[in-house]
């Protein structure tokens, strides 16, 4: 029988109240609390699935599981970041992410009210390319890919893929010009 965690990892409908998932989130929260109290890079290395050389994360940081976050080399995650990693979050090399950014992989049933009431959800991965800059307060929604060398303006809500080498801003985020 397939577990709720396996369903989550493959993008199927799953229950986030599953005891295994609850225990894993609690374990991640202990590491998050330890990191936020100490700012130790060693804690982030234990928490993240992978962390590239020269990358760093500022406190206060929040995530669900940690092991689904993969951050490339020489990348920076500023204060108050929220990474809901129910699906994989991949952050490339040389990425700068401004304060209070949110990368949100979780999706909840829209039309199936009973499934939502029973806490079923799905998740879709987020991919941030190399040399991307996300301004402060940017929200990246589930399933989005942002191409290499792109800049997303502060406060933008990214609801769909953004191509490489562009400046994109707004809610919803739209390409303004090529870079």
Automatic annotation (TrEMBL):
Keywords: Acyltransferase, Repeat, Transferase. It is an enzyme of class 2 (transferase). It comes from the Bacteria. Gene3D superfamilies: Hexapeptide repeat proteins (2.160.10.10). Residues 5-53 form the Maltose/galactoside acetyltransferase domain. Its EC number is 2.3.1.-. PROSITE patterns: HEXAPEP_TRANSFERASES. One of its GO terms (molecular function) is acyltransferase activity. Signal peptide: none annotated. Pfam families: Hexapep, Mac. Transmembrane segments: none annotated. The keyword ATP-binding does not apply. Belongs to the transferase hexapeptide repeat family. This is Acetyltransferase. It comes from Lentzea kristufekii. The lineage of its organism: Bacteria, Bacillati, Actinomycetota, Actinomycetes, Pseudonocardiales.
